[in-house]
Amino acid sequence: MNLENSRIIDMYKTMLRIRKFEEKAMNLFAEGKIPGFVHLYIGEEAVATGVTANLNTNDYITSTHRGHGHIIAKGGDLKYMMAELFGKATGYCKGKGGSMHIADATRGILGANGIVGAGQNIAVGAGLSAKYKGTGQVCACFFGDGSTNQGTFHESLNLASIWKLPVVFICENNMYGISMSQSRHQAIQDISDRAVAYNIPGVTVDGNDVFAVYEAANEAVKRARAMQGPTLIECKTYRHRGHFEGDPAIYKPEEEQKEWLAKDPIKRLESFIVENKIQTVDEINEINEEIKREILDAVEFAENSPEPAIDSVVEDIYTDIVEEVNLV
Amino acid sequence: MRRMTYAEAIRDAMRIKMKEDPDVFILGEDVGKFGGCFGVTGTLYDEFGEDRVRDTPISESAIVGCAVGAAATGLRPIAELMFIDFVTVGMDQLINQAAKMRYMFGGKITVPMVVRLPVGAGFQAAAQHSQSLEAWLTHVPGLKVVYPSTPQDAFGLMLSSIEDDNPVAFIEHKMLYGVSGDVDDEVKKIPLGAADIKREGKDVTVIATGKMVHEALAAAEELAKEGLEVEVVDPRTLYPLDKKTIFDSIRKTNKAVVVTEEIKRGGYAGEISAMISEEIFDSLDAPVVRLGALNAPIPFSTKLEQYMIPNSGDIIKGIKKLV
Fold first, then answer.
1. Which of A197, A201, A187 has the alpha carbon at shortest distance from A145?
2. pLDDT number for residue B290
3. B192 and B164 in contact (C-beta within 8 Å)?
4. Left (φ > 0), alpha (ψ -120 to 50) or beta: where does A239 sit?
5. In this predicted model, what pLDDT tens digit does every residue of B91-123 receive, in sequence order?
6. B17-70 pLDDT, tens per residue?
7. Is A1 a residue whose pLDDT tops 70?
8. Per-domain boundaries in chain B
9. pLDDT digits (tens, 9 = 90+) for A30-45
């Protein structure tokens, strides 16, 4: 693998941006400033980062309920994301989507999704669209281990395979489908084994090693762009937090948590950067400060943004119909 | 004027739009060489090829979901489900994805797609191949629901549905596929949200959808012999609903019968009836009469199936409650 130092630093920045955004969201949720559900991506940053480093702005992604990381990695604007988490009018979705429904069509982000596994079919549609129009775009489809037990997983991988669509299926195996551990929710260890059923390549990589993810995705994206069909990449990683904020995660054994925290993807990349003299500790600290400021700016933007106007509750349902706004 | 069947009219509208716009394509089970479960796509495969008339595996969730993803990224898919009964398998994709994407994403993604959904009883296909499930769809903000009763309407409404930038559930009654009618030579769209008065009359208004339009017309013909003038209003699109045409008719006749083939409990006929009672109660001489199928799954036996679905005789009985 030949990655220029500047790209390694970019990846580090992306991972850090995700981590700091999520930590801030965690605190704001605890303070009661962010309502609703928040599912944090902490611990899984290397996956979104390693994959999207292979994508162009006009390539597509589909995301999940745990979507902040994917959106940030694909270039989503932190200000509009944070404002959306606050439910403000300036948010990506004008305050009508929230944490689980952020999309940015200008960057090919076809939405986070509140239904587990639903993005898989949508990704197939985006892949079909790219192939049909011959645009050379690919779609990276992110989903968790839990969703590989949904029917959509089978239907979409089968369809993408028979139609040789430019889709890269990325399974973030964070070891839990909500509270149910992978060893309890399916009888296989490596989800990539399922690729055999669709006659497509299936690989398992260390999802906490951003370079391993990058390399696997690089191969898969090349294959997709060459219209050779989809790939299933399983990234083994770990969800540091509960399923949602407020979940005490009593089902996660202490030993397991310790073991995985020691494999933190950001610490690993940091050590690599310092050991290989790509940057000094001081420079790393500077990057940390820079990202912290970005996050604070985003929070400030969100806090100072207006609430949505009441009339907007019935707008954007249809392109050409605005519904009645009065309850009585 | 051209003479064509309801199925041919749907096909011709799809053909016209496919010729006009390369982004329009069809996907579904056996829509290709086989020509569609009810022959609606017919020869389109030969005319447009396998990329634009795409056979899919038996995967309703993927059919609808793939259409959603394709629509969100610039294509205009027409997805065919063999029977509306199978929408259950693709329901998440239609209800939680297609219908809500635009709203959830603050209007930044649109989903211009048509899902064709054959409904209706009448040929002993029993409980899982005969339902009329339109109320499930009219309940969901974000979907438009279209339901033609004649070849002309099927033609004009399909043109509009394909052009529409919103997800459209296009409901087709299976027993109407072979029914012939006149269709204008001119390629003229029928806007979504425009009802049609299928027969004028001054004494009673019957609001009917799909195959029930034909039953209502037969009832009207019969009652005309007794000197009763029945007006038959066909909403043609269930959402958006042309309340004005319906209300204007009732303001004239002061009597309303609403008849659909749905199971009566929770059907869209209930919504129409409620609107009439809420909004123009003073125009009514008597309570609205609502007719639908019995609250039972559709049975296999010809005798039982025929009994449980309203027909012109039942509509006559319903009308006679009011006059």
1. A187
2. 98
3. yes
4. beta
5. 999 999 999 999 999 999 999 999 999 999 999
6. 999 999 999 999 999 999 999 999 999 999 999 999 999 999 999 999 999 999
7. no
8. 2-183, 196-320
9. 999 999 999 999 999 9
CB A138 within 8 A of CB A225: yes
Tokens at B234, concatenated: 């066909």
**For the segment B226-276, what is each residue's pLDDT rounded down to a tens digit?**
999 999 999 999 999 999 999 999 999 999 999 999 999 999 999 999 999
Residue B49 has phi, psi (to 5 degrees) of: 90, 170
Best to test chain A binding among B26, B29, B108 (most A CBs inside 10 Å): B108
Nearest CA in chain B to A99: B104
pLDDT for residue B185 is more than 90? no
- Asked if A315's CB is within 8 angstroms of B107's CB, the reply is yes
Q: Which is the CATH superfamily of the domain at B2-183?
A: Thiamin diphosphate (ThDP)-binding fold, Pyr/PP domains (3.40.50.970)
| Contact yes or no for A125 and B68 at CB 8 A | yes
Residue of B51, B53, B73 for testing the chain A interface, max A β-carbons within 10 Å: B73
The tokens describing A182, both together, are: 């992978």
A71-87 average pLDDT score:
98
List CB contacts (< 8 A) between B101 and chain A: 103, 111
- Contact list in A for residue B77 (CB cut-off 8 A) is 125
Contact list in A for residue B62 (CB cut-off 8 A) is 121, 124, 152, 155-156, 158-159
Instruction: For chain A, say whether B277 makes contact (Cβ under 8 Å).
Output: no
Task: Specify whether domain B196-320 bears CATH 3.90.105.10.
Answer: no
CATH class as words, domain A5-314: alpha beta
Residue A34 contacts residue A28 (beta carbons within 8 Å)? yes
Query: Where are chain A's structural domains?
Result: 5-314
Of A95, A126, A317, the CB nearest to B102: A317
B129 is catalytic: yes
Residue A105: name the closest of A85, A64, A76, A79 by CA: A76
Band (pLDDT 50/70/90 cuts) for residue B187 is: confident
Q: Mind telling me how many Å the CA of B51 is from chain A's nearest CA?
A: 8
Q: What is the DSSP letter of A123?
A: H
Residue B14's CB: how many other CB atoms inside 10 A?
28
A151:B108 CB<8 A: no
Mean pLDDT over the full length of chain B: 98
> Is omega for the bond preceding B240 within 30 degrees of 0, making it cis?
yes
**Cβ contact, residue pair B106, A126, below 8 Å:** no
Q: Which of B18, B21, B105 to mutate to test the interface with A (most CBs of A within 10 A)?
A: B105
Do domains B2-183 and B196-320 share one topology? The answer is yes
